[in-house]
Amino acid sequence: MLSVSSDIGSVLKMKWVINSPRLREACENLLINPRELKRKTIEQCGNENPGASEAHLSAIYNIHLRTLRLHLNQVIEERKRIIKEGSSMPPILNL
Questions:
Q1: What pLDDT digit, counting tens, does each position of 37-85 carry?
Q2: Among 14, 19, 39, 40, which has the minimal tally of Cβ within 10 Å of its Cβ?
Q3: Global confidence as pTM
Q4: Residue 89 CB: number of other CB atoms within 10 A?
């Protein structure tokens, strides 16, 4: 079973399948945008914050990583709950 807190380094390197139905449902239940589960580079943070000093950019990036870890932990736990208790979403009909 995947545990973010035990191996955050490898989890952050993973490519998430954001269109997974259970992952999407977990994000929806937690009001987390699935795009927030993507790790940004420090360069991307710099592009989003032009003119930021190196120290400020480092702080922004560290906040991004902490938020990412928090969201990953929450989504993984919610996904586990959905799997255990069953989905609350109606099944998709193939028409």
A1: 889 999 999 999 999 999 999 999 999 999 999 999 999 999 999 998 8
A2: 19
A3: 0.70
A4: 13
Greatest CA separation found in the chain? 55
Classified as helix, coil or strand, 59 is helix
Pair 84, 65: CB distance under 8 Å: no
Q: How far is CA 10 from CA 4, 6, 75, in A?
A: 9, 10, 16
**C-beta separation of 74 from 30 below 8 A:** yes
Q: What is the torsion angle, in degrees rounded to the nearest 10, for the CA atoms of residue 80, residue 66, residue 33 and residue 43?
A: -130
Q: What is d(CA 47, CA 73) in angstroms, rounded to the nearest whole number?
A: 27
